[in-house]
């Protein structure tokens, strides 16, 4: 204990002499980054591995304080290998972190890489009505469905896992795709603007530990897609018929047709003229409801 006390006393004395404004700023920045990383990684499978790593670091710190030279020599020889091992172990989490940084609104303003602006194929209000109509019908019939709407992040790697469709979205098309015992009903449909690009696509499953056990593969895939991209994913449960919406790593469950339409208008890039029409219709409906109450 005397050795530990002397070590801490010498270390704190050196630290006190070297404190500057820049040093304090660095500590605050590092503390913020570490806090955000801990919050983000807590609900993933990497959390258990991280706890093991912390135990190992504490053990090495004790070995350094007590001058256990053999253990320190072994640690020094395996240091470079350990760094590579950490990158391999945490590769999925590191990739997700970089993808989320790339989806930052500030970074999206830079014209880097492929653009997702749809031009004449931009989603319109009538297209959202077709999607909502199809989801409502599948909800009543308890037909499972998984529909992904692409936003800024290109979904080419997921589109390539499916079968090419390239058709304008309609309620009838979506109902036929997800009909039971048809070749295209299994997997996800991916939309780019108003076009159904591909069907039977494979999506990444979320590895979050906070997902309810009552949710199936479709909901886990929708959540996984929302964690790795900025897309909007609609899920219709085959067991209950409930409609859910996944975006930005969150799953909104049990939404009604009206709520689904409202959220899709809010989260997707629909044509400006469609937005104006929708505002007029909404105002007109509100006025009629107000007159009816009178």
- Morphology: elongated
- Structural class per helix/strand content? alpha+beta
Main β-sheet description: 7 strands, mixed
**How far from one another are the termini?**
82 Å
Strand segment tally: 7
In order across it, which strands form the biggest sheet? 2-4-3-1-5-6-7
User: Helicity level, as a percent range?
Assistant: 55-70%
Number of helices: 13
CATH topology call of the largest domain: YojJ-like (1
- What fraction of residues sit in β-strands? 5-15%
Short description, anyone?
This protein has helices at residues 2-17, 21-41, 46-65, 69-77, 79-89, 91-102, 105-108, 125-141, 156-159, 171-177, 217-228, 257-267, 272-293, and strands at 145-149, 163-168, 188-192, 195-201, 232-236, 243-247, 250-252.
Task: Please tell me about this protein's structure.
By secondary structure, this protein is an alpha+beta fold. It has two domains: 2-102, no CATH class; 119-283, YojJ-like (1, CATH 3.40.1700.10. The chain contains 13 helices and seven strands. The protein has helices spanning 2-17, 21-41, 46-65, 69-77, 79-89, 91-102, 105-108, 125-141, 156-159, 171-177, 217-228, 257-267, 272-293; strands at residues 145-149, 163-168, 188-192, 195-201, 232-236, 243-247, 250-252. A seven-stranded mixed β-sheet has the order 2-4-3-1-5-6-7, sandwiched between helices. Helix 8 runs antiparallel to helix 12 (257-267). The longest helix has 22 residues, at 272-293. It starts with a helix and ends with a helix. The model is unreliable at 105-116 (pLDDT under 50).
